[in-house]
Design brief:
Helix 9 runs parallel beside helix 10 and helix 13 runs parallel beside helix 14. The chain is an alpha/beta fold. The protein has a six-stranded parallel beta sheet, sandwiched between helices. Strands 7-10-11-12-13-14 form a six-stranded parallel beta sheet. Strand 18 and strand 19 form a beta hairpin. Among the domains are: 124 residues, Methylthiotransferase, N-terminal domain (Rossmann fold, 3-Layer(aba) Sandwich); 115 residues, Transcription Regulator spoIIAA, CATH 3.30.750; 60 residues, OB fold (Dihydrolipoamide Acetyltransferase, E2P) (Beta Barrel), CATH 2.40.50.
Length: 448
């Protein structure tokens, strides 16, 4: 195989985007391209973009323009932009970003090698490749895991929920599940190369298997994955509360390898707003589900996400949300200010809220959550837990990792106060210190 140019891939946005980036990396490396350690040294730079909300679009544009400078001052010969922003704004980007050589949407990213090779062979190539988003990778698709002893595993693609504020269904296509055999084989492959933890992702993992023939439930898939001997932790992310079943609660409770961690984006608690969001669930149903999770799995760690300042949100409706957060005391919580996105029903809703009001509400909510997080963490002092060691902190030089209640990239970290550890291994640790979001611990000595 001829060694081709060096490449650098920058992945923006969510873990689902990261998996797409890893698929592109795998295909490029398999076809002779080399991975560069820095963007400055790369001859080909690929930016996998996000466009879910306004902030994500701004970050994507800023990153592209920054990297475009390397065509003048670095080694970059080819700047490629892929992903959600291309799929969504296919008609505008060529004009707005002339610095970019190729645009590839979510329906064509799997063909990145052919597209780049075609550009190098052709004098007047097309700059834009935006097909219908129907592709979903399998265990046979080349993929380069970038997270060491942890990995994301995408079990489904697209979304058919059509929440009124969201563009994902239009960008990613309708919900489509991978076969259970393909998922299990990929999980086994990851375990064989030393991955200890898999994090199951999709736009709505709780809908997994509903479109397959024969059908299979998410709970049944989890039971199968829990049988993989070399896997230690299985984490479920992006579980929609409207589709969370009793059997799913039971499998989390009963299977030791499945982390007692639930990512449950509820978005709001007021019934009028939930209906306007097209969330297809009520406040009472959310409260009931949370009660079942707390009762059946006493040490459960629940993460949620909320949208602040949805069109028409009144002061009273926001106060209702604040009181709910104080009452439930979520272990993890992310809050986002509503972003008005064209091509969504909510774009045309009346009562859009001023930015300064959204910012004020967001600040109040997160201050309450900071206090809750600190209170929850203090309860862990003196307790023991397992920690997957992932590296050494560049800030303090301590070994750091995550507990089963700390999901990668979005939650806090646990640092070891002293001593040595092997990266990629799991240790029993006593928690000796806390702050708002992070923990400090010491390895419990093993006794022969």
């Amino acid at each position: 195989m001829n060694v081709k140019e060096s490449i650098s891939l920058i992945s923006l946005g969510c873990p689902k985007n990261l998996v797409d980036t890893e698929v592109m990396l795998g295909s490029l490396v398999e076809n002779g391209y080399r991975v560069s350690q820095t963007e400055e040294d790369a001859q080909i730079i690929i930016v996998n973009t996000c466009s879910f909300i306004e902030e994500a679009k701004e970050e994507s544009i800023e990153t592209i323009l920054e990297l475009a400078e390397l065509k003048k001052n670095g080694n970059c010969k080819l700047l490629v932009v892929t992903g959600c922003m291309v799929q969504r704004y296919r008609d505008d980007l060529e004009k707005e970003l002339p610095e970019v050589d190729i645009f590839i949407g979510t329906g064509e990213f799997q063909n990145v090698v052919d597209i780049i090779d075609r550009l190098k062979r052709t004098q007047n190539p097309s700059k834009r490749y935006v097909g219908k988003p129907e592709f979903i990778y399998s265990h046979e698709t080349p993929r380069l895991n970038t997270r060491g002893s942890s990995a994301y595993l995408k079990i489904a693609e697209g979304c058919s929920n059509f929440c009124s504020y969201c563009v994902i269904g239009k960008i990613r296509g309708k919900h489509r599940s991978r076969t259970p055999d393909s998922i299990i084989r990929e999980a086994k492959n990851l375990a064989e190369i030393g991955v200890k933890e898999i994090n199951l992702i999709g736009q709505d993992t709780t809908l997994y298997g509903s479109d397959l023939n024969p059908k299979i439930t998410f709970a049944e898939l989890l039971r199968k994955l829990a049988k993989i001997e070399k896997l230690s932790w299985i984490r479920t992310l992006y579980t929609h509360p409207a589709h969370f079943t009793e059997s799913l609660v039971q499998v989390i409770k009963e299977e030791e390898k499945i982390c007692n961690y639930v990512d449950l984006p509820i978005q709001h608690i007021n019934n009028r707003i939930l209906k306007a969001m097209n969330r297809r669930i009520t406040s009472d149903s959310i409260r009931k589900l949370l009660g079942i999770l707390r009762n059946d799995i006493p040490d459960i760690c629940i993460r949620t996400s909320l949208i602040i300042g949805f069109p028409g949100e009144t002061d009273d409706e926001f106060e209702e949300l604040l009181e709910f957060v104080k009452e439930v005391k979520f272990e993890r919580l992310g809050a986002f200010q509503y972003s008005r996105e064209e091509d969504t029903p909510a774009f045309s809703y009346p009562g859009h809220i001023r930015k300064e009001i959204k910012e004020e509400r967001h600040g109040r909510l997160m201050e309450i959550q900071r206090n809750i997080a600190m209170e929850n963490n203090k309860k862990l002092l003196g307790s023991s837990t397992k920690v997957l060691i992932e590296g050494i902190s560049p800030v303090n030089g301590l070994f750091q990792g995550r507990t089963p209640c700390q999901a990668p990239d979005i939650d806090g970290l646990t640092s070891l106060a002293r001593g040595n550890a092997d990266i990629g291994e799991i240790y029993d640790v006593t928690i000796t210190g806390t702050d708002e979001y992070d923990l400090i611990g010491e390895i419990i000595p093993s006794h022969p």
